Amino acid sequence: LLGNHLLENGFSLLFGAYYFNDALLYTKAKEILKIELEEQILADGAHFELTPMYHQIMFYRLLDCLNVVTQNECFEKEFVFLLREKAVVMLSWLMQISYRNNTIPHFNDSTDRIAPTSLILFKYAERLDVHVKEILLLSESGYRIIDTDFYELRVDVGEIGPSYIPGHAHSDTFNFELQVDGKPFIVDTGTSTYESNDKRLKERQTSAHNTVKIGNIEQSGVWSSFRVANRAHIISLKENENVITASHDGYKKFGIVHQRTFSTSEKSIHIKDLLVGGENSNQVHKAYLHFHPSVGIIRIEEDKVVTKNVILSIKGSKNLRLDDFTFANGFNKYQDAKVLIITFANDLLVEIAII
Predict the structure, then answer these.
(1) What is the per-residue pLDDT across 132-157, written as a single tens digit (0 to 9) for each?
(2) How far apart are CA 148 and CA 162, in angstroms?
(3) At what angle do helices 23-40 and 77-97 cross, to 10 degrees?
(4) At what angle do helices 118-127 and 77-97 cross, to 10 degrees?
(5) How far is 150 from 225, CA to CA, in rounded Å?
(6) Is pLDDT of 181 > 90?
(7) Cys-Cys crosslink for 192: which of 156, 173, 305, 328, Cβ 3.0 to 4.6 Å?
(8) Residue environment code for 151-183, b if the CB has 16+ CB neighbours within 10 A, otherwise e
């Protein structure tokens, strides 16, 4: 299966080598880990399957390995340096992607109560003297963060994952999550099962994420439990301090390119969707915004969606509708919540204002 599975094997062999004092196991473990850590840890520190939960798991395993080689005899300084170097960059990425309350966004196959929390990992890293000297700019992973005193925004403008192992990927290009005043507001619907069933398929599909779906076509063709057929690819990305604009080709079957722009200020976020080439399309275009179950009374007033501390102004919609969805609060754990479904033509603007 490669990916995190092979990395787990390398970690286990290293522990076995120390436990049994076995040079052959040590040589094989070192061989696997040297190759796979270089392959799987991206330049910005992310684990290449782009799933924050798996990043936590792999980081935990890496810290354990660093712990065992430093607490026992290891004469290969180069190998210890590699483990520490990768631990530092993984720590940098996790510190950035985590919210201030130390939770993680539920991008791809991420959920709660499976991996050690970010806070536990931060404390473990500190005990092993793993410290970040310089925070790496998020780049290769395709995730971006925008934090102000009022909100925390996490945006996905990257590929779905490595081309040869997209098993934990979802059809979620341009998905985002938003926390307001330290509490979740707009969320990914989450992951509740790995079984090959309708629930698993639905949680991976485009409509389960805060992005745009055209007709009945998925951006990326998720199927079975861990399979992806055709994939959306990022074909352009421009960004500066306050604006991110990206395009993907997941709807090339319709001759349509989806472009999304995030423009941010201290208390507001503007999300503009433009479907280029879709002027003559008879397909229905829908944008989805999933609210966390804790969000209070939500009401629609003409072209506005009003909550206790946030107002969403919608420009370009043909119809606004609140529907029910099931929020996955962990494996086999569910909560009822609301999703806003916006039907539009070829361009849409959503202005999120914190009040």
Answers:
(1) 988 999 999 999 999 999 999 999 99
(2) 31
(3) 40
(4) 150
(5) 37
(6) yes
(7) 328
(8) bbbbbbbbbbbbeebbbbbbbbbbbbbbbbeee
| Pair 285, 345: CB distance under 8 Å | yes
DSSP bridge partners of 325: 337
| Residue linked to tokens 């985002």 | 176
Q: Please write the tens of the pLDDT for every residue from 269-327.
A: 999 999 998 666 677 899 999 999 999 888 999 899 999 999 999 999 999 999 999 99
* Global pTM value: 0.95
Cβ neighbourhood burial of 272 (10 Å; 0-12, 13-18, 19+): middle
Per-residue pLDDT for 244 more than 70?
yes
What would the two tokens of residue 282 be?
């008879």
Interhelix angle 52-71/23-40, rounded to 10 degrees, is 140
| Amino acid at position 248, single letter | H
How many residues are present in the chain? 355
Residue 278 confidence (pLDDT): 67
3-state secondary structure of 259: strand
Backbone angles phi, psi at 81, to 5 degrees: -60, -40
Q: What is the DSSP string of 139-193?
A: -TT-EEEEE-SSEEEEEE-S-SS-TT--TT--S-TT-EEEEETTEEEE-------
Q: Distance of alpha carbon 294 from its chain centroid, rounded?
A: 21
State the virtual CA torsion across 209, 223, 115, 37 in degrees, nearest 10: -110
Q: Kindly report the CA angle at 225 between 224 and 230, in degrees rounded to 5? A: 55
Amino acid sitting at position 221: G
Distance (Å, rounded) from C-alpha 132 to C-alpha 88?
6
DSSP strand pairing (234-239 vs 285-290): unpaired
